[in-house]
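for the recovery benchmark. tokens below, seq after
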């Protein structure tokens, strides 16, 4: 049944605050804009104008108007204006210090009686999923998550569990898929700046990459570090002899307009540290392996123990395609999360505006 909206369209204010926000948000923003009964207002933390130019460029490319706000003003409650706003949606919203802007905005909006929503911004997200699920809380009354309720971590606090709305991952513009003739035989992705990794993890990752480049000189290899971390950027000297490695540095990744879905279209196989790249690869149907292992959240994706495993996987070792299906079905609600987000916004905001306090 179609959702009927009141005559005055409720306005949803969306905060884009961190480098990685735009990739999970863009599909949802387009869906909100397309919803006949909703009005969209986008604000972007001004630091991204310098540190992640692709954020503003992507919004402009899709005809999405926005305004910059100082992050400090958001944290201290001076911005953005909430006049005429019915609901607030923030991706990076939790009590973790890195999410301070979204958290402050959710607290302020909730205090004014507005609807407040958070959106899962990565597969392993502090306060929500993975080994740090119990280490943060949410001010938002509803948390849109990618995973089904039965997949919620057992140690997830009851207060957070009660806020979950399983929607699935919002589909990016253009959707998921693979090119018939990929540009790269192997894509290597890393977020090794994360303090979960040991020096040994980092050393083994670099050894695996070098061994693969050396053993397969004809293989086309793409190396992409996390755009906000850039650990692999420090190894230009070690990787310089290998002309078969194309490097997209962290700074370049923050400028390029291609999304993870677009990048993965041109890759035949992926090796990644445990991260959202594994999820996106599975969605795109790209064989993916982990280095180092990611533990239970990533089961049953294969893990590579050392350089020989790297070389075998990159060489085209047999890969069971049902592994991707099993992984997706366990950790993701199928379909486009953006459409479910819009449906929930419509239901909530119709009720709020039809029965004003």
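predicted aa per position
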């Amino acid at each position: 049944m179609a959702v009927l909206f009141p005559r005055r369209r409720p306005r949803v204010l969306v905060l884009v605050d961190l480098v990685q926000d735009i990739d999970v948000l863009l599909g949802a923003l387009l869906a909100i804009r397309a919803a006949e009964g909703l009005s969209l207002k986008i604000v972007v933390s001004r630091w991204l104008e310098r540190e992640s130019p692709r954020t503003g460029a992507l919004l402009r490319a899709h005809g999405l108007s926005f305004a910059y706000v100082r992050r400090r003003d958001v944290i201290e409650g001076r911005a953005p204006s909430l006049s005429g706003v019915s609901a607030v949606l923030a991706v990076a919203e939790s009590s973790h210090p890195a999410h301070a802007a979204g958290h402050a905005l959710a607290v302020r909006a909730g205090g004014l009686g507005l609807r407040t929503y958070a959106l899962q911004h990565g597969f392993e997200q502090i306060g929500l999923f993975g080994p740090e699920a119990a280490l943060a809380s949410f001010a938002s009354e509803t948390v849109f998550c990618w995973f089904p309720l039965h997949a919620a971590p057992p140690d997830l606090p009851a207060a957070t569990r009660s806020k979950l709305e399983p929607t699935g991952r919002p589909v990016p513009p253009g959707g998921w898929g693979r090119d018939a003739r990929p540009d790269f035989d192997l894509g290597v992705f890393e977020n090794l700046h994360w303090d979960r990794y040991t020096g040994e993890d980092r050393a083994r990752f670099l050894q695996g990459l070098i061994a693969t480049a050396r053993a397969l000189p004809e293989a086309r290899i793409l190396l992409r570090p996390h755009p906000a971390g850039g650990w692999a950027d420090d190894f230009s000297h070690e990787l310089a002899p290998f002309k078969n490695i194309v490097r997209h540095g962290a700074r370049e990744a923050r400028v390029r307009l291609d999304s993870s879905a677009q990048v993965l279209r041109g890759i035949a196989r992926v090796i990644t540290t445990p991260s959202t790249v594994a999820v996106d690869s599975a969605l795109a149907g790209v064989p993916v392996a982990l280095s180092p292992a990611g533990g239970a959240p990533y089961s049953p994706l294969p893990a590579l123990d050392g350089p020989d495993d790297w070389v075998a996987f990159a060489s085209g070792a047999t890969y069971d395609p049902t592994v991707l299906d099993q992984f997706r079905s366990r950790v993701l609600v199928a379909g486009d999360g953006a459409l479910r987000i819009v449906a929930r916004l419509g239901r909530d905001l119709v009720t709020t505006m039809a029965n004003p306090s």
